[in-house]
Amino acid sequence: GSGSSSEGSGAAAGDIKLGMSVSTLNNPYFVQLRKGAEDEAKKQGVALTVTDAQNDASQQVNQIQNFASQSMKAIIINPVDSDAAGPAVKAAERSKIPVIAVDRVVNGATVAQTVASDNVAGGKLAAQELAKQMGEKGKVAVLQGVPGTSASRDRGQGFTEGIKAYPDIQVVAQQPADFDRTKGLDVMTNLVQSNPGITGVFAENDEMALGAIKALGAKAGKEVKIVGFDGTPDGLKAIEAGTLNASIAQQPQLLGQQAVQGAVKAAKGEKIEATVAVPVKAVNKDNVAEFAGS
Amino acid sequence: MLVSTNVLQRKPPGRKSPAATWLGENGALVALVVLAVALSLLSGDFLTVTNLLNVGVQAAVTAILAFGATFVIITGGIDLSVGSVAALSAIVLAWTATDAGLPWPLATVIALGVGLACGLVNAALIAYGKLPPFIATLAMLGVARGLALVISQGSPIAMPEAVSHLGDTIGDYLPVPVVVMLIMGLITAVILSRTYTGRAMYAIGGNEEAARLSGINVNRQKLITYALAGLFAAVAGIVLASRLASAQPQAAAGYELDAIAAVVIGGASLSGGKGRAFGTFVGALILAVLRNGLNLLSVSAFWQQVVIGVVIALAVLLDTLRRRGTN
Amino acid sequence: MLVSTNVLQRKPPGRKSPAATWLGENGALVALVVLAVALSLLSGDFLTVTNLLNVGVQAAVTAILAFGATFVIITGGIDLSVGSVAALSAIVLAWTATDAGLPWPLATVIALGVGLACGLVNAALIAYGKLPPFIATLAMLGVARGLALVISQGSPIAMPEAVSHLGDTIGDYLPVPVVVMLIMGLITAVILSRTYTGRAMYAIGGNEEAARLSGINVNRQKLITYALAGLFAAVAGIVLASRLASAQPQAAAGYELDAIAAVVIGGASLSGGKGRAFGTFVGALILAVLRNGLNLLSVSAFWQQVVIGVVIALAVLLDTLRRRGTN
Amino acid sequence: MRGRKGRLLNDEILRVEGLRKEFPGVVALDGVDFTLRAGEVHVLLGENGAGKSTLIKMLSGAYHPDGGRILVDGAPTEIRTASDAQRLGIATIYQEFNLVPQLTVGENLALGRPPRRFGFVDTGRMHEQAGELLRRVGVDVDPRTPVARLGIARMQMVEIAKALGLNARVLIMDEPTAVLTTTEVERLFGIVRQLRDQGVAIVFITHHLEEIPQIGDRVTVLRDGSSVAEVPATTPENELVRLMVGRPIDQQYPREPAAPGGPLLQVRGLRREGEFTDVSFEVRAGEVVGLAGLVGAGRTEVARSIFGADAYDSGEVLVNGRPLARGDVHAAMEAGLGLVPEDRKGQGLVLGADVGENLGLVTLRRASRGGFVDRQGQRRAAAEVARQLGVRMSGLGQEVRTLSGGNQQKIVIGKWLLAKASVLILDEPTRGVDVGAKVEIYQLINSLTASGHAVLMISSDLPEILGMSDRVLVMARGRLVGELAAGEATQDSVMALAVTEVEDARVH
Ligand SMILES: Nc1ncnc2c1ncn2[C@@H]1O[C@H](COP(=O)(O)OP(=O)(O)OP(=O)(O)O)[C@@H](O)[C@H]1O
Ligand SMILES: Nc1ncnc2c1ncn2[C@@H]1O[C@H](COP(=O)(O)OP(=O)(O)OP(=O)(O)O)[C@@H](O)[C@H]1O
Ligand SMILES: O[C@@H]1[C@H](O)[C@H](O)CO[C@H]1O
Ligand SMILES: [Mg+2]
Ligand SMILES: [Mg+2]
C-alpha cells in the first residue's frame, strides 16, 4: 500500500480506488451521506467501497486496516468515535494513504481534510429555534442520542449552552433514546406521563423526533413544539405536515459529495483545504420548500 | 407464640392450598406485583389507566416475540433471529404495499409468509442439517437483517395506512397492540396446553430421544415450532412498524435477548421441557414495567441500565429463593 | 467364518488413523481452510503477510472473550456479560490512570480485578442464588455497561500511553494483540486439558449431579469458571481499548454473541461437557477471516450481513455433514 | 462361619437410628434402624419405593436426614457432602448411573480425584490406573473410550470399578446386578466376597431374591419407609417376600401360553456392519419370544434396528407381512410395533415431566382430534395403568424424576402397555422392578398375548426368560446362535449356547 502518492499525480480517475467507512447505516442520515458519496464517485469515475462499522469503533479500525491492505488510494472515515479513530488514521498515515474525515472529526491524528457540520453550533441553533417556537417560555424535554457518541455530546452541549439564554425555559427531563425512532416513541410516552406540562421537545436527531411525534399524537407540533436534527426526508415531510416544528438540517449528501471530491484530489496528490465546513441550517415551515427538493 | 408454632408446623405433604400451588408456579407474578407496588408508591404517575395501557403497548412487541420464543425454548432450542425477522417482515410488507404496489391485505399475507419461511429455514438447518439452534438462528439474524437493509436500501418505508391502524387505539383508549398481544398470548397458551404439537414440544425439550422413541416425529415438530416463532416475529414486526407508521430496517435489533429474557423470567428453562404462555407474558410485563417505571422516576439513563440489571436479577432471585423455601 | 467374525469385530475405539481422528475433532478447521482458499482465489490482497496479521489482530478481542466463554460453555453455562465487562474494565483502567491519577500498573491490576469481580458476582448468583446463567449474566450485561457509562459519564477516556502499547506491534510486524491472544489461548488449553479445574468443568457440564456426587465442589468450580471468564473479558477489554488508544463506554457491545458463536463453531455444545481451546480459536478466526474477506472483496455493507450469516451456517453445516459421513 | 476372625471384622462401622426423610408430598423414610459391620454383606430388601435408595443416599451425603441420626464408628456424624462420605471411607454405586458421558472411562474412574503431577492432571497415570481397575472387574474396554459409547451393562461395570477405586471400608451398591447377566454377576460376587474377606462392609440392594443367600449375610427389610425386620440371609425366599410385600406370592412366573397364530413380526437377514449379522427370526401372534445372550451380544442393537431407532445395512423387517421402512420409528409405530428401551433415563422417560404426561406420550397422537389432545381421556387411561402396575406416587402430577427407580421402570412399560402395540419389544423390561410388581407385568403380558398380540422379550434375567418365554432365541457376538423351545430351555442349555459361540469365534 505504499507509493500511491508518488504515482498519484499522474493517475487517471479510472484507477482510483477509494474506501469509505461509515459509522452506521442504521440511520437514514448516513444512508444519504453514502448516497452523496456514491453519486459523486460515479460522476468522477472512481471506485468507491463503503463499509458499515455498525457503531463499533474497533470494527471501524478493522475496516481501515483492510482498506490499507487493498491499497486504496484514499480513505474516507466517518468516525464512530472521534478519539478512537486516531490510531486507525495514524496507521493509514504510515502507509501513506491520505484520510478524509467526514461528519465527525478525528482526534489524535492528522487527516488530509475534515468535512463536517458543527454539531455544537447546531445544538445552539436548535435551542434558539425551539425557544422561538415556544415563545421563549415553557418546559422542555430532551431526547438524547446514543450515550457516548460525539454527536450526542456536542449537540447536548450546544443546546444546553444555547437554552441558557432563555431564563423562562426549563429543561425538565433528559433521556437517551439512542437516535432510534422506536425508543423515541417509548421514552417520549413515558416522559409525557411523568412531566405533563412539557411544551417543548428537542430530539438530537429526526428519527427520535419522529418517534416523539407518534407519542404526542395530536399535540405534536401544536401544544408541544418539537425540534429535531438532520433534516432527513421523513423529517422534512413532518415539517410540511406541521407535526415537526423545525429541524437543524445537515446536508449529508453534500457532506458525502465533498468528502469524495477531497479524497479524489488527495489521491491525485493535489493540495486540499484542511477543513470544509458544510453549513447547518434551521428548517421550519417557512423554508422547508427549499430543502424538500435536495 | 403464634409465629413460632406456625414456623414449626410442617406443611402436610400434598395438602398445599390451590392458591399456594398456583403462586408456586407463577413466581414471576409475585415479582411483578412487588415491582408494581413499589413503583406506585414511588411515583404517582405509575398507577394511572393511561400509564398502564402505555406499559401494555410498550410490552406488546417484546411479548409477541417472546410468545414465539417460548415454543422454541420449550423444545430446548433458542431463536436469536426473531428481532431481525420482525424487521424483515415489516419491511417486506411496507415495500410490497408501496414500491411494488400490491394491495395491503396481500402484502400482509406475504409478510407473514416471510416470517414463516425464515422460521422454516431455521428449522430445516436445525432438524435436517443438525446445526445447533444457536448457530442456525444466529446466521438467520444476519441474513434477515441484511435482507431488510437490502430491500429498503437502508431507509425507512412508510406503512400502508390501513395496516398502520394496528398501532392505534380501539375507541379512545384500548390500544390495538395490547389486543394483538393478548390474542397471541391466548393462542400460545392453547397451542402449548391443548394441542398435540404443544405437548410434543414439551416432550422434545424434556428428552428428545425418549420423544422420538415414543413415535413423535421430532423433525416435523421442530419445523412447526420454529415456523411459529417466525410467524410470531412477523406479527411483532408488523405491530412495531404500525406504531411508528413506518417500517425500519434496523427495527427490533437486539430484541431477541429481551424476548428470551422474558421467557426465562417467566419460569422456562433454556434446557427445555418447561415454560408457559402466562409466565412469558408476566416476564415481558416485568421488563416493560421496569423500563417505564425508571423513566417515570427520571432515573438517569446510565443508572437505568444498572438498575434494570439489578432488578432482573432480584426478581428471578426472589422466585428461586421462594421456591427453595417451599420445597 | 473368518470373514464374518472379522466383520463383526467391533471397531476398537481409537483405531482410526490419528490424522482422521484429529480432523474429526477439528471440523471447524476444515471450514477455515476452505474459506481461506476461496478468499485467496477471489482476492489477491488476502494472502499477504500484512493482511493475515490484520486478520489476527481483528480476531484477537473476540478470541480472548471466546476463550473465557469456553470455560463457561463447557460447564453448561452461558455468559452474556463479557462484552460489557470488557468495556467496564477498560474504562476503569483509563479512569483510575487518568482521573484518579494512579500509576498504570496499579490501574491495570484494578481493571483486571474488576473483571474478576464481575465474574465472581455472576458465579455467586448462579451457584448460590441458583439463577439461570442466562439471567444472571444478562443482568450483569446491563449493570457493567451502565457502570461503564456512569464512570465515564458517557465519554471515551484516553488510555495511558504505556498500556496503549498493547495495541502496537513488536518490531515492525508482530502485533501485540496477536501475541496476547496466543498466550491466552495457550493458558486456556492448559487449564482445560491439564488442570483439576479444567477437568472438573467438563464433568460439571457433562453431568453436574455425577460431578457433585464424585466429591467435586461444584459451586467452587463455578466460581472459578465465571471468574476466569470475567478476567479474560478484562484482558480483551484492555486490548481493545489499547488498539483505539481510548476506552469507550460502548465498546464491545454485542460481542457476547460473537464470542459464543466462536465457541460453538469451534465444536462446543451449549448443553455443556464439550469444547476445546483450539476449536474456539479456529471459530474466532473463521469470523474474522469472513469479515476481513468480505471487506477485501468490497461486498456491499448490507449484503455482508447476509453473506456472513450464510457462510457461518455453511461452515458449521460442512462440519456436521462431514461428521455424519464418517460416523 | 466363614472363618472370618479378628477384631476388625464384625466391628460395627455404621449405625442408623430412627432416620426420617420427607419430600414434598411423600414421607420417604419414617424411622429406619440399620447397622453395618465390617466384613459383612448386608442386604437391603423392600418393594419399589420402600425407601432403600433414599436411605443409602443419606449415607453417601447426597441427601440430608430430616430426623434421626447416623453414627460412624460409634460417633454421631453429619455427612453433608459426597466428599464427607469419601473422607469417612464410604463409597457408593447409585442405582442411576453417575457417569459423565462425554468423558472417557478413565476420567470417570478418577472423577473428582485425578492423579496430579506438578499440580497438573497426569492423564497417562490416570488411564494406567483405570486400566488396572477395569481388569479387576474384568471388563475389556479401553480406558480412553468415552463413556457415552458404552451400553448400560458396561456402564454398570465402570460404576463398580469406580467405587472400587476409592478403596473404601464401606461399599454401598444399589441394584448393581439389575442389568448384568449371569456371567458378570458371578464376577461381581467374586469381587464382593474378596472385599468382604478383607473387612470391607458392604450394603447390597437387589430385587433378585435368589442372589441373597449367595452373597448376603444379614437382611434388613424396609416397608413403606420403615425397617420392619432384620433376618439372616438364609431366610427362605417366600418368607422374605412375605416380610417385604406383606403377603406371599404363589407364582413368580405365571405364563399362560396362548395358541400361536400367524407370524406378526418377521426379521430376515438383518445386518449392521460391526454390530450384528444374519439375524432372522419370527414372532407369532400370541407368542412370547425370549431373546437371551451375554452383555454385548447385540440384542439391544437388533431390537432398536427393528423398531427403526437405528438404521441397518441390509435385511428386512416385516410386520403383519408388510415390509417396514428402515430407520423410521414413526412408520414402525404405525405398523403396530412398540419398544420399551433398556435405558429408561436416557431413552424411556421425560424425567422433568409428570407421571401422567409420560404415560400418555405414546398414545398422544391417537388421543388427538384435529390437533387437540383429549387430556382428560389421557389422564384417565394413565391413572388406570398406574393403578394396575402399583406405581407408588403422590399422584399423576408427580415429576417422574422423583419416583423410585423401580417405579420409573413401571412408567416406561406402562406407556407402551397403553399403546396396545401388536408386537411389543421389551428390552430388560423388569429391570429394578420388585417381585410383586413383576408378577403384575407378567400378567399384563399374558393378557396381551391372549388377545392376539406378540411379545419379544430381551432380558438378562435368565429365570425371567425361562419362566415367561414360549420360545428362547440365543444371541452371541451379533448372531443368533440357537433357538430352544420352552420345554428344553434351561439355564445351562441357554448359557452353553451363549458362551460356546464366543469361544468358537476366538478360536478362529
Ligand atoms: N426427590 C424426591 N422428591 C420426591 N419424592 C421422592 C424423591 N426421591 C424419592 N422420593 C420418593 O421416596 C420414596 C422412596 O424412594 P426410593 O428411591 O428410596 O425407593 P427404593 O426403595 O429405592 O425403590 P426402588 O426399588 O424402586 O429403587 C418413593 O416414593 C419416591 O417417589
Ligand atoms: N466388545 C466390545 N467392544 C466395544 N464395544 C462394545 C463391545 N461390546 C459391546 N459394545 C458396545 O456396547 C454397547 C452394547 O451394550 P450392552 O452392553 O447393553 O449390550 P447390547 O449390545 O445391548 O447387548 P445385550 O442387549 O445383548 O446386552 C453397544 O453400543 C456396543 O457398541
Ligand atoms: O450527524 C449524525 C446524525 O445526526 C445522526 O442522526 C447521528 O449521528 C450523527 O453523527
Ligand atoms: Mg432405589
Ligand atoms: Mg442390552
Could you describe the 3D structure shown?
The complex is a heterotetramer, with one copy of chain A (294 residues), two copies of chain B (327 residues) and one copy of chain D (508 residues). With 294 residues, chain A is an alpha/beta fold. Chain A has a six-stranded parallel β-sheet with strand order 2-1-3-4-5-11, sandwiched between helices. Chain A has a six-stranded mixed β-sheet with strand order 7-6-8-9-10-12, with helices on both faces. Chain A is 44% helix and 21% strand. Chain A is elongated, with a radius of gyration of 20 Å. The longest helix of chain A is centred in the N-terminal third of the chain and has 17 residues, at 28-44. Chain B is mainly α. Chain B has a single domain, classed as Orthogonal Bundle (ABC transporter involved in vitamin B12 uptake, BtuC), CATH 1.10.3470. Chain B is built from 15 helices and four strands. Chain B has helices spanning 2-8, 18-25, 27-42, 49-74, 82-97, 104-127, 133-152, 161-164, 176-194, 196-206, 208-213, 218-244, 255-265, 277-296, 301-326; strands spanning 157-158, 169-170, 174-175, 246-247. Chain B has a two-stranded antiparallel sheet. In chain B, strands 2-3 form a two-stranded antiparallel sheet. In chain B, 63% of the residues are buried. By secondary structure, chain D is an alpha/beta fold. Chain D has two domains: 12-251, 3-Layer(aba) Sandwich (Rossmann fold); 262-350 and 421-505, 3-Layer(aba) Sandwich (Rossmann fold), CATH 3.40.50.300. Helix content of chain D is 34%, strand content 26%. Chain D is built from 17 helices and 24 strands. In chain D, the strands form six sheets. A six-stranded mixed β-sheet of chain D has the order 6-9-10-3-11-12, with helices on both faces. In chain D, strands 18-21-22-15-23-24 form a six-stranded mixed β-sheet, sandwiched between helices. In chain D, a hairpin with a 2-residue loop joins strand 16 and strand 17. In chain D, helix 4 packs across helix 5 (152-164). The two termini of chain D are 46 Å apart. At the B-C interface, helix 7, helix 13 and helix 15 of B face helix 7, helix 13 and helix 15 of C. The site of one magnesium ion has 6 residues of chain D, from helix 1.
